[in-house]
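Q: Convert this sequence to structure tokens.
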Amino acid sequence: MDARASFYLLLPFLALLARDSCADKAGAATLNFANKCSYTVWPGTLTGGSSGQLSSTGFELATGASFSINDIPETWSGRVWGRTGCATDASRKFVCATADCGSGKVSCNGARPIPPASLAEFTLAAAGSGQDFYDISLVDGFNLPLSITPQGSGSGCSTTSCPGNINSVCPSELAVKGSDGSVVACKSACLALNKPQYCCTGAYGTAETCPPTNYSKIFKDQCPQAYSYAYDDNNSTFTCAGGASFLITFCPLDLICHPILLGYSFK
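A:
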């Protein structure tokens, strides 16, 4: 049998091998991070439920830098956020001005972000559906702009973004101020005022009884695609075919080039 005939006999097996290989890759995802802010950001990650944490639960991301986490399970749910104004204090504890996770270290190790925090949320291959769900949530308040862009096999899916600097329009009763008096984060009305109509609890515990408020509308005006309060889900959840990787960009409008949007800075 000549080499050409042998090759054609092997074609079905090669096709099967390629199909299985592609199927394996389609189920995996990568989280890519980029920092376009004019200040350093310390991203944190948190896996939901009882699943193990990712290989990196916190790291430093300088202006213009990028970073990737490649060990995302085939089915995964969790959240990502950016901490700002971080440093090691006199007791050698790592602390952040906004969205600190309280671990005392750069790695969060399963600790939740302390609000206010802008969140990127993911549920990959939800309930065996093969669909990835993702959103940006300001339900816990806002500390910095960010966006989520699907890549790879899901590259035809939509980007969702919170590009506006809500700190620059934050009402005083919601504002969190830094040591220099500038607004570094904006609390949700629920967190700041702790009333049922803002938290969608008690008599306000349904979508029908908990409409948008004047406070949530401030968040929505700046970031129309993001969740502004608990029942703001009409156009805030995005989905695409499973297997996509995702780019999380902090300050997606590149505030270095848009200083008029920058209402705060960290030294």
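The chain has a mean pLDDT of 85.
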